[in-house]
Structure formats: structure tokens, C-alpha cells
Amino acid sequence: MVEIVETKSALRARADAARAAGQRVGLVPTMGFLHEGHRSLMQAARRACDVVIVTIFVNPMQFGPNEDLDRYPRDLDGDLDACRAEGVDIVFAPSIREMYPREPSTTVVHVAELTTGLCGESRPGHFDGVTTIVTKLFAITGPCHAYFGRKDAQQLAVITRMVDELDLPVTVVGCPLVRESDGLALSSRNAYLSAEHRTIAPQIHAALCLAADAVAAGETDPRRAVDIVRAHLRQWPDFSIDYVACVDSATLQAVDQIDADTLLAVAVRLGSTRLIDNVLLGASS
Ligand code: PAF
Asked: Would 227 be classed as within a structural domain?
């Protein structure tokens, strides 16, 4: 049975009690509207941990003024069903007031450098919102293993760096990106796509695959990989490309030559929906 917890003190008490009993705590931070991608994180946590905590909180601090906070999809009942099906022990679903008694928060956790490029460029302040809420969740939960998807590759790199540099007692576990059968990366925001845009959206992954195939065939020039993705997407005028970039997967710095740690990352808009995707070049993803 899943236990629903709404206060920070109750979550802290449950996590402390688990550790006192010698149990390993697994944390899966989410904004809800859970899909198979989230479920794969829960499954990874379930396999490795004694107590699995899923947090469901649509974090206002990581949305810009013109972003989709108000229309962000929510379905707490469906989310609880998914958590039950995955054998989750605790769902932490706090109110905004519980997480931010003082709004706006006067304390902000900022990771420099890694947050300026890629999504950081068109979403100023977004990663400050992510790192602030994730730090709070880590502080409330205490020592744990925390599970994040590789679809949000920049978020994973930023949180990994933050945990390392702030010496937080958390083991960050990156989990494989999960796709629909036609290749579209799972995202809560896929729910916004019109029927027509939903048929076009898998071309993002198709474009990444074309570049990955070229790399597998010996291409090492990042500019060529980027060109392949852009040229493919340009065939559908509805795609508005935000960025296509080859970066090191840990530092997120642009690379001169492709190697096994090179991430090819893309962000596009289809209508008003912003979608991101990536592949690790030189790896079979
Ligand atoms: O990836 C997400 O869903 C969110 O950015 C996170 C990590 C739950 C923080 O709100």
C-alpha cells in the first residue's frame, strides 16, 4: 500500500526511520502526470532500494513567466495508481505553501556554467528552480539514491555536478531514456501535441538516429552531426529548432571531435510545445 505524505516533517520522519532500520532509501523526484519513463525510474529504485519515495510536485520556480505552469498536465489519481502498480512505498505530494512558505524563495541554488547553454539559453532561471527544489527534496529526505531520466540530460548533468560540489549525501542514478514505439521520447508535454504534430514528432529521434548512424560509420566532426539533424528536421516546416548541439555529456561544453562521451542534444518547438531529445553518440542509444 502506498502511503501519501503531504508534509516535510512526515517525509523526513519516514526516511529517518527507514535508515535507522538499516534500509536504503530511493527517491524519484517528479512533477507528476507519470508515464512509462517515470515508471522505469521507480522500477530502478525498487530494484536497488528498500524504501521507494516518489515526489509529485509541479515546481513553480522552474517555470518562466510565459511558460506552461498553469496548463501543465496533472492527474494525481492516475499517478497514485502508477505508484501502487510499481510497488512505491511513499508518495510525497506537498502543497506549494508547504514547499515555499516564503514565495518567492530568497535562497536560490545556482549551478554556474552548465546551466547557461542548451535549454538554459532559452529558459533563463529554469535550472535555478530545478536545483533549488531538488536540493530541498534531498535535504528533507536525507541520504538516499536519487533517480533521474537521461532524457533531461542537462538536468542530470547539473544535478550530478551540484551533488558533487555541495557534498550532498546522495547517489545520483541516471536511467535510460524511454521512447514510444515510434521513437518519440516520453514526456508529460507530449500530451499537448495536436494529432498532426504527434505524427511529425518522431522525426526528432529519426534525425538523431541519422547522425548516430553517420558517427557509427566513422564521422567524427560534430558540425556534420549537427547539420544532419538540422537538414532532416527542416523537411517539416512545423519544427522550429531551438538548438542542435554536440556537447560533452558531463561538462556540457561543445566538443571539437565526437567521442563516446559526446551527447547530441536537440530542442524544438512543434506549435507551442517544446520537446527535447538526445542520443549519446558512439553508444547504442
Ligand atoms: O524532471 C522533473 O520532472 C523536474 O525537473 C524535477 C527534477 C522533478 C524537479 O522539479
From this structure: yes
Nearest CA to ligand 1 atom 2: 30
Whether 235 is covered by a domain: the verdict is yes
Average pLDDT over residues 62-84: 96
- Per the DSSP assignment, residues forming a β-bridge with 247 are 254, 263
CA distance linking residue 159 with residue 166, whole number of Å:
10
pTM check: above 0.90: yes
Boundary residue ending a domain (133, 149, 175): 175
Structural domain containing residue 210: 188-278
- Are 31 and 90 within one domain? yes
Work out the burial of residue 142: count CB atoms within 10 Å of its CB; fewer than 13 is exposed, 13-18 middle, 19 or more buried. Answer: middle
Q: Is 183 a domain residue? A: no
Does any domain span residue 285?
no
Residues 132 and 207 in one domain: no
Same domain for 111 and 145, yes or no, is yes
CA distance 38 to 89: 15
Q: What is the pLDDT of residues 168-219, one digit of tens each?
A: 999 999 999 999 999 999 999 999 999 999 999 999 999 999 999 999 999 9
State the Cα torsion 117-257-185-267 to the nearest 10°. 30
The percent of residues above 70 in pLDDT, for the chain, comes to 99
Number of compact structural domains in the chain: 2
> Atom 9 (ligand 1): residue with closest C-alpha?
130
What are the pocket residues of ligand 1 if the criterion is a CB atom closer than 6 Å to any ligand atom?
29-31, 59, 62, 130, 133-134, 152, 155
Residue 284 pLDDT level (bands cut at 50, 70, 90): very low
Instruction: Give residue-wise pLDDT tens across range 197-209.
Output: 999 999 999 999 9
The number of the ligand 1 atom at minimal distance from the alpha carbon of 152 is: 1
Average pLDDT, the chain: 97
- Write the CATH number for 104: 3.40.50.620
